[in-house]
Amino acid sequence: MHAGAGRLRQYQKRVILSASIHFPSRTNGRRESLSGVSPAPSLLPPFSFPQKRKEVLNADTIIEARWVIPVAPKGVILENTSVVIADGRIIDLLPISEARTKYSAPEVVSLPESALLPGFVNLHSHAAMNLVRGLGADLPLMDWLTKKIWPAEGKLMSPEFVREGSWLAGLEMAAGGVTTTSDHYFFPKAAAEGLRSAGLRCAVSGIVIGFPSAWAKNNAEYLEKSEALIREFEGDRFIRTTIAPHAPYTVSDDSLKACAAISDRYGVPIHMHVNETAGEVADSLRDHGERPIERLRRCGLLNDRLIAVHSVHANDDDIRAMAAARSSACHCPCSNLKLASGFAPVAKFLAAGVNLGIGTDGAASNDKLDMLGETRLAAMLAKAVAGDPTAAPVFDMLEAATLGGARALKWEREIGSLEKGKAADMFAICLGTPESLPVQDPAAQILYSAGRECITHTWVDGSLIMEKSQQTVYPDPQAIERARSLAAKWQSRI
User: What's the whole-model pTM score?
Assistant: First the structure.
C-alpha cells in the first residue's frame, strides 16, 4: 500500500466526523449532527450560486415586423417577429420580445404595421430596354420587334446604353421589392455593372442569336463571349450567369446544341424564350416537324436547368415533358397580354409540379417593372383560365415570385426565402394604409390589395438599397435627377 493512501483516508475520516451535515430525524423532525452533538455555528458567510447571466449576442441589424412571411415553410405567417442580420445573412428569426433580450445591434428598424417578405426574384427582364419604353404600343410581337424595337436597338446598342439603362431599371425594381433579376440582353457585363450599381443581385446572360449585333457578329463569337462571361463571374456572390439562346425561331440546331454543351460544362441555367406565340409553334412544326419543346429535347436543352420563358402555348405533352425533366417555366403575364400572345396554363404547371417563376419581361413590352402587380395578375389570370377560383393559391404565387425564381437560377440555397443562414434579401410592405385595412389575411392582402407603392424598404445582403420617406427613396439623393438626365439623353438618340 502506498504510504500516502492511509493518511488520506484518515484525513477524510476526520473531515466527515467534524462536518455539520444534518438530516431530519425520522422520529421528531429535529436535526442532529452525524457525531450526535450540536453543530458549532458556521464561520463562513452565507453562500448562494450566482445566476447565470444571459449572453447578449451582437448583430448588425434587427428588423422588427408585425408579420414575417418567410415563404419556406410554405403557408407560414410569423407575427411580431424580428429578423436578425449579421454579415449580410439572416442569423435568427424569433419573437420581438426575445430578440430584444438576446441580441444587440447598432441598427434596429421597427415596422409595426408592415410585413417582411423575401425579395422578389424577377426571373426574366430586359433591363436596359426601359430606355425604349413606350415604343410600338398596340402592335403584335413580330411587328413590335421588327418595326420598332430592333431598329431602335440598332441605333442605341452599346455598353453605355446597357449599363445606364440597367441602372435605371434597377432603381425601379428596387422600389418594388425586387432584390434579384435574371437579365436577358446584350453586353451582359455592362448590364451587371448597372444592376449592381442600383444595389441588386443579378444573373446576366450570354446571348446567342442567329444574326449579328453590336455585341457579336456570328454564332462562334456569341458562343465564345458567352463562355468567357460565365468564367469571369464564376463564384461571384452577387452576379451569376446563364447561357441564353434567344428563342427557337432565332437559333439554329447547331447553336442550340452548343449552348447545351456550355450549360452542361458549367452547370449554368438556360434562359430562353419558348412557346411565346401560336405562330412560333406553327413555324416550328412547319420547319422542323416538331414542337419547340420537342426540338429542345432533341438538342439537349430540356433538363432541370431550362428556364422556358413565357410558355404561353405549352400543351399537355409539353407540360408533362417539362415536369419529367424538372424544367422551369417563367410566366410574364403583362407582356403576354399587351402583345396578345395568350394565356399561360399556370394552374396546369402547378398541378404537374413544374417549377414556376414570375418575370416582368422588359419595360418596352410590359411597360412596368412591377413584380407585385405581375404576380397579382398571374394569380387572377390563372383562376380565370382554369375556371377555378382555387387555382394558383396565394402561397403558391408568392413562392413563384421568390423561391421559384431562385430555384430556376440554382440560387435557392442563398436567396428566395427568409431562413437562417440565407442572404438577408427582403422587402417591407406597409399594410396600414386604407387599401389594406383591416388586415385579416396578410398574405392574401399583400397579393390582392396592396400595391407596389406600399413597399417601403428593400434590403440586399442586409444593406438597405431603397427606403421610401418624405426625404428620399434611394441612398443616392441625386438618383432621380440622374435618372431624368439619362432618360432624356437616350430619348434624343432614337
Answer: 0.86
Q: What is d(CA 180, CA 174) in angstroms, rounded to the nearest whole number?
A: 9
How far, in Å, are 72, 124, 141, 147 from residue 135 at the CA level?
Answer: 40, 20, 12, 10
- Count of structural domains, the chain: 2
**Residue 393 maps to a domain:** yes
Nearest Cα to Cα of residue 487 among 167, 180, 217, 85: 167
**According to the model, what pLDDT value does residue 43 have?**
56
Within this chain, do residues 178 and 102 fall inside the same structural domain, yes or no? no
Low pLDDT (below 50) residues in the chain:
1-37, 470-471
Structural domain span for residue 72: 55-118+418-461
β-pair type (89-95, 78-86): antiparallel
Residue type, 436: S
Report DSSP state, residue 40.
Answer: P
User: Same domain for 376 and 432?
Assistant: no
Q: 348 with 331, same domain?
A: yes
**Nearest CA to 224 among 206, 211, 240?**
206
Radius of gyration of the chain (CA): 31
CB 133, CB 190: distance < 8 Å? no
Query: Looking at the structure, do residues 102 and 244 belong to the same domain, yes or no?
Result: no
451: domain CATH number is 2.30.40.10
Confidence at residue 272, expressed as pLDDT on a 0 to 100 scale: 98
